[in-house]
Amino acid sequence: MSFIPIDALRTKPLPRPEDAPTRDVHEILDELEAAGELIIHRVPEPYVEVMTKYGRTKKIPEQMTWHHKSCGQCGHIPGYSTAIFWLNRAFGFDYDDPTDQTSCTAWNYYASATSNAPAQAGVAMRNFAAAYETGYFPIIHCGTSYGHYKEVREELIHHDDLRAKVRDIMAKLGKPLVMPEEIVHYSEWVHAMRDRIAERQVLDFSDITATVHPACHYYKLVQEDAIYDPDLYGGERTATVSALVQALGATVGDYSTFFDCCGFGFRHILVERDFTRSFATQRKIEVMKEEANPDVVLTHDTGCVTTLDKSQFAAQAHDKNVGIPVMSDAQFAALAMGAHPYRVCQLHWHTTDYTPLLEKMGIDWKAAWAEFEEDIGRLERKEIEFLSWEDVGV
Amino acid sequence: MSSAAPAALFTADRGATLSPHSYPDVSYEEKLRLWDEVKADIRFPTYLYGCYECGICVAACPSARFYDFSPRKIAQAAGREDVELIFEQMNDDVWNCSQCFSCNRCPRENSPGGLITILREVAVNNGLASSKEALEGYSRIVYKIMTTGTQVSPDMLQADAFPDWGPGVVDVSDNLDLWRRALPPETLHTTSMSWHVGKETLTELYLIWHYSGVMDMIAEIDEGLHMIIIDVMEETLEDAGYDIEL
Description:
The complex is a heterodimer of chains A (394) and B (246). Chain A is built from 18 helices and 11 strands. Chain A is of the alpha/beta class. Chain B folds into 2 domains: 127 residues, Fumarate Reductase Iron-sulfur Protein, Chain B, domain 2 (Orthogonal Bundle), CATH 1.10.1060; 104 residues, no CATH class.
């Protein structure tokens, strides 16, 4: 069942950049750089060109990427970040996983408002300057960081006084004011790499149905900078994640609350979770289950994976129609390429039962868990201090 | 309420109120001062253009489904400059917002969620009792982000903190050190922050908090928390050779 009138949309003309309701941010950045206001950190070659909402082109770097990590991914679902790094290593790409990176602090800002525009812009510019100093190009793991940084970019390019204030703060830190040529989300990199991921696919996903939850802060904040594809949903929905599912030969399950948020709420997930649980299960998981009965929910943001996965446990007590495993597009892609479900994707940090999905993918999860337990034994016996990339074969 | 609605939103009835009796202990002048602070925010002009009363923002809003909350009322009160109602919303409504920005689908290009970001910021900046109450259980998170540079940490995954997340939380908590060491990325071998943030990086973050006036906001909202954060920051900044009075 499709909720999008695909046939009617097939006759719709492609969006033309000249018709876009907003000015191209690249033009403004070029003007500011020419005026000596800031430095543009150019996208390194080789890059892949993708189409954004109004038909403009966005450059996605293949490698030489500086990985701006995510608080929630690294802290509570670390297989998410690990899978992103694993994909880069599997392709033999050069990247930097820096310690000279702070959170964007936007989760806190949207939760508590205990900050202000100069501070938020200062944090963003400090991180971008740190990336610039290394020569690696920033790629943002978190959907909220990505959306917030796009908002910060809007504020900085349109407000001279804010720019002056932040430049002054950066000067006190001994850093220049640097803006990346593109603000790139990791899922855009996965999207750009999807055909090459499919070329290296070792598992058959043709029996897998996935529903996609698009992250609000990916495509609702500065919407013109999100990836769209006229061949997917008639260009009416963002194409990231869904295009990957198709490339891997799985089925995208459609459902009627696609545009709804997950219920994360920023402050709610931490201190008012009754709202989060209710929304996640009643407006997303149950609807997906009823309308598409998927094997997995895929999404591309920290909060969405956490909310949609963790909320399902308590809902069982109310006999809710739940029980769909949740993971990121990066974990899904890594599994397709043969990544270990525990050493790489770290699925033991997830809550909703994922073992039926692994079995359907043809993964012997019991054997994989036994291997992981051997690793834990080696760590306990102090034979190794940490599990290394060499231990996971990349 | 509809019977009291003004004839011309966003035009003639600027200043008229749909909520004349709320918070009578706070003077109109004080409410107006706060509203002026909202309007002075550089983002305000790009968050409010008008209202078709189409209700798309409400239909898209997750919070509207579970709370007595309406992004349309937020936009309309702001458009009418209904100072009384705005103050009421600043106290009673804004903390219900999910900040997902689904309301950005507004065909008039309003951002009720963006307005709420500003309203919250002004509420915190002025130490409104309602904002203190809303953030009461949240102060440990503010401490975490401001002092470690990361929002959450693995050691927060405790059964008593997340009982609704199931027995997996207990497994994580029981095996935390081992499971963190079983992560291939070196930056993740930490339990007290999301990833390992360098000391020099933290120093720079503290300087940003200081120079941007954020510490004053924290003092306004939670004096005890402010003192604790200052202690941590001062020590780090002193070690880095900065002689700054926070």
